[in-house]
Amino acid sequence: MTLSDSELSLAGSTLGTAARTMEEGSEGRPSAQFPSLTGIGDEADEFLRSIEVAQNALADAAKSASHAVNGLMEDSSALDARLAASLYSGYAVGTGAQ
User: Fold this and answer.
1) What tens digit of pLDDT does each residue of 69-81 get?
2) Between the CA of residue 53 and those of 23, 41, 57, what are the distances in Å?
3) Closest to 55 measured CA to CA, from 94, 26, 98, 80
4) DSSP one-letter string for 3-66
5) Residue 26, Cα to own-chain centre: how many angstroms?
6) How much is the pTM?
7) pLDDT tens, position by position, 38-71
8) What total number of domains does the chain contain?
9) Domain residues for 71?
10) Does residue 75 lie in a domain region?
11) Rounded Cα distance, 14 and 21, in Å
């Protein structure tokens, strides 16, 4: 699998935006129970509670994934720097130049 830095950056940014949108953009579920002639008001309330739980879980997952992508990018940058440093010093040692 090949992922460019720009793709990883976009993924991390998009996941972070999704998490914030779900956390801040939610108006929550209605607090009142639904009157019902058929008696399904409790079921409708339970369904809305389930949606709220799912939305919170998705926001947490998006936030965790965003942090993981950012950590991966930091690790990749650190590895790139270490590789560059070791290649340069190895080249200098191999040619006798200082």
Assistant:
1) 999 999 988 998 8
2) 12, 19, 6
3) 26
4) --HHHHHHHHHHHHHHHHHHHHS-----SSPPP-SSS-HHHHHHHHHHHHHHHHHHHHHHHHHH
5) 18
6) 0.68
7) 888 888 888 888 988 888 899 999 999 999 999 9
8) 1
9) 66-93
10) yes
11) 10
In a domain, 98, yes or no: no
Return the ∠ at Cα 23 (arms to 73 and 20), rounded to 5°.
35
Q: What is the pLDDT of residue 30?
A: 66
Q: What tokens does 68 get?
A: 């993981």
* Residue 39, token pair as written in the block: 């008696």
Which token pair is 60?
Answer: 């947490």
Whether 90 has a pLDDT exceeding 60, the answer reads no
* 6/63 Cα distance (integer angstroms): 19
